[in-house]
Design goal:
Layout (H helix, E strand, L loop, with lengths): L1 H17 L6 H7 L1 H4 L4 H17 L5 E4 L5 E4 L14 H13 L3 H16 L8 H5 L13 H10 L3 E5 L8 E13 L2 E8 L4 E6 L3 E7 L11 H11 L4 E10 L4 H6 L2 E6 L2 E9 L2 H6 L5 E5 L1 H16 L1
């Protein structure tokens, strides 16, 4: 649905930019396939007005002109919609080039590459790629979850979604109705922060636990979207980044290196086991479960109980 709308907006923009005289609604409807498929004049008018407003929000200057007969026409003059000269220095060009290399998902990689080519054609200076010439290390943000792209579009377009979500301690997924705010990558995993309508509260979902398709729903958001900083802090908190206590765990030697990286102290116990003290925040139980039998929680008792419950739920499935 998002792709169809984007194509319709692009066709409308091209029509308005490519004409030398104002085009009437009737002419635009006859030129754009999506408008021809509108079921009625009212449906077309609503669609056209929404599309016109969306293009204006994106920055396209659309003029409304009335001729001598009183008919209304629309056009977007090229001189009014021409971008100013791009003035980027070498460091800014290098930053954009590096950012374009980060994405590995096919569609995002193509969009980033295409945007970079357009900027270079508009005069962006060429910059030496330090990562390519001097280093074997390259920045990457892996995206393997099929839910990423529809959720990214839903966040951008402010569209509610529904999907089946399986919590770590649940045997079966359950449907969630969410107003998506933003996507965040933390410790190699993608998370969605948003408003859970049924629970009436802010929630964070790990994309790898979303089962099946993400479906868009009509209607506006019912909850206010917080600022970016607040959302990011929520994602970090629910993912276990914000620590409020300390946990004591036993860990097999030569395993659990991400846990070792967070440990504030490590003590050898013998028999191939070590004792680690690590910061304890919301979501740590879900993370510890991923290490299976290599980890044993000693304290606190509530964290140990949560880990045991999650392992039992997985064993029952």
């Amino acid at each position: 649905m998002a792709i169809a709308k984007a194509e319709r907006l692009m066709n409308l923009a091209l029509c308005l930019l490519g004409t030398r005289r104002p085009l009437s609604k009737r002419e635009l409807r006859g030129s754009i396939e999506a408008y021809l498929e509108a079921g009625s004049d009212d449906a077309f008018n609503r669609m056209f007005e929404r599309d016109k407003d969306d293009l204006r929000e994106l920055g396209l200057v659309i003029e409304t002109v009335e001729n001598l007969d009183g008919d209304t026409g629309y056009l977007a003059r090229r001189d009014s919609n021409r971008l100013p000269p791009i003035t980027l220095d070498a460091e800014e060009a290098a930053a954009l080039g590096l950012a374009a290399k980060v994405w590995q998902q096919a569609r995002l990689a193509g969009a980033a590459s295409g945007a970079l080519q357009k900027l270079r054609a508009a005069g962006m200076p060429e910059a030496e790629d330090a990562y390519e010439v001097h280093s074997a290390l390259e920045p990457r943000i892996p995206v393997h979850e099929a839910a990423f792209e529809p959720l990214m579009l839903a966040c951008r377009d402010r569209r509610p979604v529904t999907f089946d979500y399986r919590k770590a301690n649940a045997a079966r997924p359950e449907q969630r109705q969410v107003e998506p705010w933003t996507l965040e990558c933390w410790r190699g995993h993608w998370y969605l922060a948003g408003w859970d309508r049924e629970r009436g509260a802010e929630r964070v979902f790990r994309l790898s636990r979303i089962a099946g398709k993400v479906r868009s729903r009509a209607g506006a958001f019912t909850a206010e979207v917080p600022d970016v900083v607040t959302v990011r802090e929520t994602v970090e908190s629910w993912a276990g980044e914000t620590a409020t206590r300390t946990a004591l765990i036993r860990l097999k030697a030569d395993s659990g290196y991400p846990l070792r990286a967070r440990a504030t102290s490590v003590r050898e116990l013998g028999d191939g086991w070590e004792e680690l003290e690590i910061p304890y925040g919301h979501g740590l139980d879900a993370w510890l479960v991923e290490f299976g039998p290599d980890v044993v929680v000693q304290e606190p008792a509530d964290l140990r109980a949560d880990v045991v419950d999650r392992l039992r739920a997985v064993a029952k499935d």
